# Entry
Amino acid sequence: MDDDRLYAIGEVARRTGLTVSAIRFYSDAGIVAPAGVTRAGHRLYDVHAIAGLDFVRTLRELDAGLDDIRQLLAGRLTLTDLATAHLARLDDQARRIRARQAVLRTIVKQHTETEQVILMHELVALSDDDRDRLIDDFWNEISDDLRASPAFVDLLRSHRPTLPDEPATEQLEAWIELANLLQDNDFRRAVREQLRETCSLDGAEVMTSPEMLGAFGRGGEILQDAQTAQLAGVPSDSPRGREIAGRYVTFMGEIAGTPDSPEFRLRLATDVLHVEELHLRAVEEAATRPDPHTRYQSLVATINGTAQEAADFMPYAWLSAALKASLSPERATRDCPPRGDVAEP
# Structure
């Protein structure tokens, strides 16, 4: 375009994609003034005004408000400030839209009754403090008079949902279901009875003792390290694999009262694969016939974004191979043929 030329409003409209009425509006609103007028009163625009109109059109397409645009062009607001404030508004709108989507999807899935719609909307809108109070109220009732160590009760209470600031739709849907369950008397009663039955079993007192819970925590850390190594592509027969295997042998030896030996390591390598089978069977049964507490844990995992991590937490074959590799090479080759996709010892 010619820097010195003045353009009629019709040509400006063609160049900017704005309507003539929109250009007149921005002029009358003091946002982009024309460079001049003809004797007949028709507005004329130079290249700078046209560039300004292009900029205004872009900002309007990004849903920026007229007052913000006016302040920006007047130098009272920076583009960064405008973008930051507008992004915050859009993020808030997106959160509200995801919440509405979750409510609507739940209505479709559950064939929700009319009176439940308001409740579901309120559940999604709960503050963090309100959600915490709901969880605390649930566990206060469930753990009341539970014959278990305080450490076990604390462990139960610690597994609680934390809805992120920007939850995905499936997280909101899981929260709606969980919040409804937490306020359902039948669900509370079922979880309470299930935990009481578990704590009354033979050996439950020992299994829920602080010492045993601490041991389970140490064992879980070893399995977590095995998973981390496996996902990182660390070979099971590497020094890191042998180090993790050695810690596992020490841990299991303390529990079983069995000294370290090649025979003990070989037995553990076999037992770990059996644990994998039991784990897969338990996951399958939980998916088809979930008990109340398992459903609670599953929903919490979805809300916290750890459901996939739990599904992937399968380092048993890798650990079994690491235990085999920790034997002498000759013994490992003779007694422990390699298993499928696990690194050979």
Observations:
- The first strand starts at residue 7 and ends at 8.
